[in-house]
Design a protein that fits this description.
This protein is mainly α. It has one domain. 78% of the residues lie in helices and 0% in strands. The protein is built from three helices and no strands. Helix 1 packs antiparallel against helix 2 and helix 2 packs antiparallel against helix 3. The chain is flat.
Length: 96
């Protein structure tokens, strides 16, 4: 039970640290211009990927399946991120 809370804390601290990078960049340059909604969406995306990865790591016992599922989670994360950032697929959610 304690390790589950510790893992959740590590994931949330990692997400906060990663979101701190664009926040600090916004203070020094006008090229980074995130709205609060951008921070919220990226926070949900990072948290979801982290929690899904943690779930796979704890529940899947076979190394081959574990690696495949973790790779799939990363692939989905990067595809969603790319779509939201520049509109790779041209959906209505595209950022461009």
């Amino acid at each position: 039970m304690i390790t589950q809370h510790r893992s959740l804390g590590i994931i949330l601290l990692s997400v906060a640290f990663l979101l701190l990078i664009p926040f600090l960049a916004m203070q020094f340059t006008h090229e980074v211009n995130w709205s609060p909604l951008d921070f919220l969406v990226m926070g949900v995306l990072l948290s979801g990927a982290g929690l899904a990865g943690e779930r796979v790591w704890r529940t899947v016992k076979t190394t081959k399946h574990r690696i495949a599922l973790l790779f799939a989670i990363l692939a989905v994360f990067f595809l969603i991120w790319a779509e939201l950032a520049v509109g790779v697929f041209g959906t209505p959610f595209a950022g461009s």
